[in-house]
Q: What sequence folds into this?
């Protein structure tokens, strides 16, 4: 599922795999493996791709509506 999401964001930004790979400092081959889910992608890379494509990643608690982004958490919070 994450691979399809990464590909969707890249397509919406009209970027080739080669262009996106350069932006996130990886190879086109590695990005292709993320998108086809033949290689696991870490969260930091997911965030890089989302940011390059103009997306933000939010976490939302369904029960109380609390919403935050990962950069809002400080070391002292955990």
A:
């Amino acid at each position: 599922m994450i691979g399809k999401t990464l590909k969707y964001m890249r397509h919406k930004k009209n970027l080739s795999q080669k262009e996106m790979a350069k932006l996130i400092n990886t190879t086109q081959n590695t990005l292709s493996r993320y998108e086809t889910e033949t290689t696991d992608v870490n969260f930091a890379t997911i965030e890089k791709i989302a940011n390059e494509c103009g997306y933000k990643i939010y976490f939302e608690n369904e029960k109380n509506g609390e919403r935050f982004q990962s950069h809002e958490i400080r070391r002292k919070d955990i």
